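Protein record

Derive tokens from sequence
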Amino acid sequence: MGRLSKDKRDIFYRLAKENGYRARSAYKLLQLDAEFDLFTGVERAVDLCAAPGSWSQVLSDKLHKDSSNATLSPINEAGDQDSGSHAQTTNAAPQIVAVDLQPMAPLDDNVVCLQGDI
């Protein structure tokens, strides 16, 4: 059997396929996040050269999971945080944009995929 036969693939390839990630590189980003806490406070992300989209999948999973646990913050008419009683609350979802020259299949509603040159 060749080196790339299905039964000889590495553990991260198999994990990616089992967990629905498009590529094994998703686990590298998860490892970096575990070590350096990359996603704390992140509300917007641009994934450049995004194809096949595994990093955008991780971003979507991590940022939207974190935002669903966040509390609502009051916003005044100028768009600033406000502690006044007239403020309305908002729950702005994180924004993720994936850009690549290659076409990508849509990921989910949380990721905007753009095909183009950067």
